[in-house]
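tool=predict chain=A
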Amino acid sequence: MNSANTPLLETERLILRKFTENDLEALFNIYSNEEVNTYLPWFPLTSLEEAASLFKEKYREVYKRPYGYHYAICPKNSNLPTVMDFPLMEEMNKAFDEETTEWNGGLFRLYEYLSQDIVYSHPMNLLTFLDNHDTSRFYRSEADTKNLDRYKQALTFLLTTRGIPQIYYGTEILMAADKANGDGLLRCDFPGGWPNDTKNCFDAANRTPQQNEAFSFMQKLLQWRKGNEVIAKGQLKHFAPNKGVYVYERKYGDKSVVVFLNGNDREQTIDLVPYREILP
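tool=predict ok
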């Protein structure tokens, strides 16, 4: 590669260098995010294979030219131990809408994504979330909020899997918004707390029965999680979904929590023998 094309530069804080094949995971994370790429002139990537093709066409071949500037900007030390796990957010927003088959879809998305945690130095430090102020809310419409099973499974997973969970305000009362309708709707005020508000959802009497069910479920789960070192610090061990049921363990010291998530709309009876190593 020509040294006059994208020469190595260093500052006190940064290293500016060429992209390499070791950056495929980072390229995929950037170019696969649908929200980030909405107004950019390329389609979101869907696999590491596509990231490899993009690297070859957009970077490696370009670096063969006499001159050019296509930099990867890297902090020498970002002092940033936690970054946001956008890929997991995207998988969670799909996983709880789909039936989990014997081989793919639904909860298989979570299993397959978390099976790639080896690419992270400290996956337990990743910030996990269902939505935030720059994405569509977990529920995009009021009609969607009728499905409380989706809400309960997603919250259970978010608050028991690896990482540092973040919950966007309003999730506890099923606030819904689609980014396609504008960012303003994503950031609507929580109803209540101001003198002129016509409705105060801080008061259970002003919430609908469905909102109260959602609120109580989250409150109970958070109270259980508070101070629970197994969930906060425990290592994750998981198993490929069987009959649509995804099983994982969080273990810290001699204590553990085992979670069973059913990715089907019907009851399942499963053999517990494959999980003997994590069961009492």
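Residues 139 and 147 are 9 Å apart (CA to CA). The radius of gyration is 22 Å.
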